[in-house]
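Input.
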Amino acid sequence: MAKHTIWEARRWASSFLTEYNRETNVADLLLMHYLECVRAQLLANAKDVVEEEIFNQFQRDIHIHAEKGVPVQHLIGIEEFYGRDFKVNHHVLIPRPETEELIVAVTKQLRREGWHERNLNMVDVGTGSGIIAITLALELTNVEMRAVDLSPDALHVAKQNAATHKADIGFCEGSFLEPIMESGDKMDVIVSNPPYIPEADRSSLSDVVVNHDPELALFAEDNGLAAYRTIVSQVPHVKAEEALLAFEIGHNQGEAVSTIITETFPDATIHVLQDINQKDRIILAWL
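Output.
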């Protein structure tokens, strides 16, 4: 059996992925995972031989990704978010960099208002893999964090991630804020990255997304606004006297979601924040 260097493995994979119109960066992500190294080491150690067993697994995964569109995160079972590794699978949405900006926006807003020093009741609505709830619980002090999801499979993943990172989270199965409404608890901070992609946009999405991310976490009716309408309608039943509502939104939904909030909370102070690509991505509303 011929031996392959790191450079040869990368060259083969890059050519193969290009044939299938896949991102060639997948090759490096897989190699870094199996060789337990960082990208700089792939370059510095380009002449090192890849063990046969690892190369065979690498080849299999490249074929699976290229031919079937299985996300690299599902192949290796993890994705990095806000400096931490989280378990992911087909039951949960793969974390996106834009959601890290939601974390930054919420923590900055709470610190600006001096709320980071208060004991806060916080809920993450539609928690998925738990990245938002876990990250906020670890980045902030004095937070009693709840996390809600309709999917028991997603909650199973979230609980594993919380255990890995030693985050104290109260997980609830249910639709949006219904479990909090039933408990009678009042929330100081309500944060959510709900499904917001209109069904009409399905055909424009990559097969890597459409065929492997859970539909429940992607698509929403009412031109992508249905989840926002439901959550906002439930907020009056769970919010503390003063509360912060934070949403991740689609790039063209800033005005529409702001309108949904003001219809229920006419006196709300609303900020629409843009992401690194200068697109509307986050709404912060003081209620």
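The mean pLDDT is 89.
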